[in-house]
Amino acid sequence: MNRLQALYPARIWYEDDVYYVQFLDLENGFTFGENLTQAKEMAADVLNGLLASALTHNEPIPLPQKAQGDNIYLIAPTIQVQVALLLRLIRANWPEEKMALAMGETKQTYQKIEQSYKIPTLSQLQEIAQVFGKELVIEFRD
Q1: Higher pLDDT, 49 or 4
Q2: Secondary structure (DSSP) of 35-84
Q3: Which one of 12, 72, 106, 139 is at 20 to 30 Å from 33 when CA atoms are compared?
């Protein structure tokens, strides 16, 4: 099963009483925290900012690599940024007008969604999934 996900691997390590975070796929993806929980929260903030900026400015966004290890954590941006990124990936070479039509929206509304300014409804996401022959899955993770 080929899954589209917006979970980015980050290496988190403890050194000199600080938890450092470095994203494996993103330049300038660095932060830190006083404990592991805070480091993961800070990582999500950094990830969200980097991806939202790239989406807004229509810059290329690297896909997250599959990485594993004791000090590798998968970090998710906000739902708005996740949806915007996944829609951009699934749309690929489709014109925005065609995506908007598939969602029952105007091109301007679709653009707001893909730039992470607006969250689509679950019904709209289900429509997009059906158009592309995908299954929409929503999950809660630890």
Answers
A1: 49
A2: SHHHHHHHHHHHHHHHHHHHHHTT---PPPP---STTEEEE---HHHHHH
A3: 139
What average pLDDT does this structure show over 14-31? 95
Q: What would the mean pLDDT of 126-137 be, rounded to a whole number?
A: 87
- pLDDT (tens digit per residue) in 87-98: 888 888 889 999
Q: Domain coordinates of the chain in residue numbers?
A: 8-75, 79-131
CATH number of the structural domain 8-75 = 3.30.160.250
DSSP string computed for 83-126: HHHHHHHHHTTS-HHHHHHHHT--HHHHHHHHTTSSPPPHHHHH
pTM assigned to the model = 0.82
